[in-house]
Amino acid sequence: MWKCRSKQKQLRLKKEAMFTCPYCEFSGKRSEVHNHLAENHGDTLGVRVDEFTKHTFYVITCPVCGASYEQVTKKARRDPSFVSEYEYEIRLVVFDLLLYHLQGEHQLGE
Ligand SMILES: [Zn+2]
Ligand SMILES: [Zn+2]
């Protein structure tokens, strides 16, 4: 369920574009910064549980402009172990949203 649809085609990414972590001095290729974010900045994600559906939402807030994005994890409802088991994958998905936002709105990687 975490398959990444290949939006990259639409973004016309330069192959060796350098990205800088929005939270620290780390910089590298997109994939390196992506992994770095998931490994080091998971505490920047917010989590909320929807009252009605009991779905768990991960919330990422852009450190530049304050825009926020949510990623729902529907499986958490029936499987409490899902969130801990797949936490890293969930982080990757959510930080991917942030990276697309930073690329689109704040010229990251250009
Ligand atoms: Zn960082
Ligand atoms: Zn922003």
Give a quick summary of the entry.
The protein is of the alpha+beta class.
Q: What does it look like?
A:
By secondary structure, this protein is α+β, with helices and mostly antiparallel strands. The chain has one domain (16-106). The protein is 36% helix and 18% strand. It is built from four helices and five strands; from the N terminus they run αββαβββαα. It has helices at 8-11, 30-40, 81-85, 87-106, and strands at 19-20, 27-28, 46-49, 56-61, 68-73. It has a three-stranded antiparallel β-sheet, covered by helices on one side. A two-stranded antiparallel ribbon has the order 1-2. It binds zinc ion (2 copies).
Number of domains: 1
Large-scale geometry: elongated
Strand % is 15-25%
* Total E-strand runs: 5
Q: Output the radius of gyration.
A: 14 Å
Pick out the low-confidence regions. Answer: none
- Helix/strand-derived category reads alpha+beta
Give, in order, the helices and strands: HEEHEEEHH
The distinct bound ligands, ions and cofactors come out as: zinc ion
Level of helix content? 25-40%
Averaged pLDDT, please? Answer: 84
How would you write the strand order of the largest sheet? Answer: 3-4-5
- Helical run tally: 4
Q: First CA to last CA: what distance?
A: 30 Å
Q: What can be said about the biggest beta sheet? A: 3 strands, antiparallel
